[in-house]
Design brief:
It contains ten helices and nine strands. Strand 6, helix 9 and strand 7 form a beta-alpha-beta unit. The protein has two domains: about 55 residues; about 200 residues, 3-Layer(aba) Sandwich (Rossmann fold), CATH 3.40.50. The mean pLDDT is about 95. Helix 2 crosses helix 4 and helix 6 runs parallel beside helix 7. It is an alpha/beta fold. Strands 5-4-3-6-7-9-8 form a seven-stranded mixed β-sheet, sandwiched between helices.
Length: about 280
């Protein structure tokens, strides 16, 4: 007798939640349908498709790359191995940016302008643009593959973002000016063991590490920011769990004031920023 969906979910080596997600992807059905039809017997072609995805996951490939999407700030973002997988802790950076933009609106008549450096999938820039559609958002990345994913996401989600290719500020046109700069740059040290563990093994190395101590890109962004602000401005950067003090020092040495670090839900200082003096 052929196995039902219930049998297949019970006997898989994957965690049950992941197996359900793969079956939903194969069958293109919501979770409620899968539960209501757990006595159905999948067709041979469907079972073959599932087994192929199951093998990829058992081999360690991230679910986000297998499914091709990851939720961030309530939106479904397409992801490929060209971009980092958006993570929940990065939503803190977006929330801080939105709060700053709201406070800025009370004293600024002109449209607010935001720059996202190293945009990857576009998750940060697009989330800001969707939440504050009256804001002008520019995003840069040195990877054409990443920009292709970001542009696809912006189109699919209906966000207005200008994407430019280049390393950090090199992508910008002369004379650009912004009220807020945000970034989730590579901040893992080159020798960190985490680069060879878990999902990180499959993500683009250049988006994870600066090839040095994990602080050089944070410093480059802070040191180069001053010439791109419109009458002051603010910079906020995501960083590693143990880099908050170093990030504050980098900002201080780069001419920023009112510097502070914000902790995520786990109590880890994850985002550091300040105002340009």
């Amino acid at each position: 007798m052929a196995d039902t969906l219930r049998d297949l979910l019970r006997t898989t080596s994957l965690p049950r939640l992941e197996a359900r997600m793969l079956w939903q992807h194969v069958l293109q059905v919501p979770r409620a349908w899968l539960i209501a039809h757990d006595t159905d017997v999948p067709a041979a072609q469907q079972l073959q498709a599932y087994r192929a995805l199951e093998a990829r996951r058992l081999g360690g490939e991230p679910m986000a790359y297998i499914l091709g999407t990851r939720e961030f700030m309530g939106h479904a973002f397409s992801v490929t191995p060209d971009v980092l997988i958006p993570r929940p802790e990065t939503e803190l950076l977006v929330e801080i940016a939105l709060d700053y933009l709201d406070r800025l609106a009370a004293r600024l008549d002109a449209p607010r302008r935001v720059l996202d450096l190293g945009t990857g999938s576009g998750a940060i820039a697009i989330s800001i643009a969707l939440a504050r559609p009256d804001t002008q958002v520019v995003a840069t990345d040195s990877s054409e593959g990443a920009l292709a994913v970001a542009r696809q996401n912006a189109h699919a989600l209906g966000a207005r973002v200008e994407f430019l290719r280049g390393s950090w500020y090199d992508a910008l046109k002369e004379g650009g000016c912004f009220d807020l700069i945000v970034s989730n740059p590579p901040y893992i040290a080159a020798g960190d063991a985490h680069l060879a563990q878990g999902d990180v093994r499959y993500e683009p190395l250049q988006a994870l590490t600066d090839g040095a101590d994990g602080l050089s890109d944070l410093a480059a962004i802070a040191q180069g920011a001053g010439g791109w602000f419109r009458q002051g401005g603010a910079l906020y950067m995501e960083h590693g769990w143990d880099q908050a003090a170093a990030a504050r020092n980098i900002l201080r040495q780069s001419g920023f004031v009112q510097i502070s670090s914000t902790a995520d839900l786990a109590g880890i200082e994850r985002v550091t920023g300040g105002l340009y003096n």
